[in-house]
Amino acid sequence: MSDAELAAHLAICAGRILLEVRDSDVFEGKSLGKAGDKVANQFLIQALREQRPEDGLLSEESKDTDHRLEKSRVWIVDPVDGTREYGEARSDWAVHIGLAIDGVAEVGAVSLPGRDGGLVLRSDQTTPAPAYTGPPRLVVSRTRPAEESVAVAQKLGGELVPMGSAGAKAMAVVCGEAEIYLHSGGQFEWDSCAPVAVARSHGLHCSRIDGSPLIYNQSNTYLPDLLICRPEWAKQVLQLVAELKR
Q: What is the pTM of this model?
């Protein structure tokens, strides 16, 4: 099984586990989020250790160690991206399975199990987004939209589209449901590794909001900002962000 096939398989399986936990009606709200995180993480950690024992591993739900820093290949996972949305039985949550090679998000799968029929976007299977000629749509946090996103949307005459998890927002751009995902409110490597791998494979622009590259498997896993967008919007968005910071 290739790395991309493994990532997709694990994302699908973890998504099914999470739906089963949610549908059991044993947990609700925050307790549902905690239970889902725990069960999905246990499955993913065990599976990756069995299938790729020589690789490094970083998960939001497991204690981090320096061991991964010695590795060229590191799996970076988020068992439930958007725990709040998962606990509220919304659809805008995701499972992230990413593989960084020498610091670059190379392979990934993002599962959106809450959508009708489920949806998995992967780095080894790409489809063109549908054509769109209207004003740009910018996906933003449904609870705390970043100031830069709001300001850039105003400058571009764009539309804000509130949404839950980082994975759901990034995949909205991949699927052609939005053009720009600009985030500056703070994230960690597991929030963006898999989405960036998928977005890059689909030909999207992916960078920090100052235009510098996104680098993974760092000792400090905090990766506070990113831009994922259709390539035709990248230069203008980066310029507007730079102007806002002057």
A: 0.95
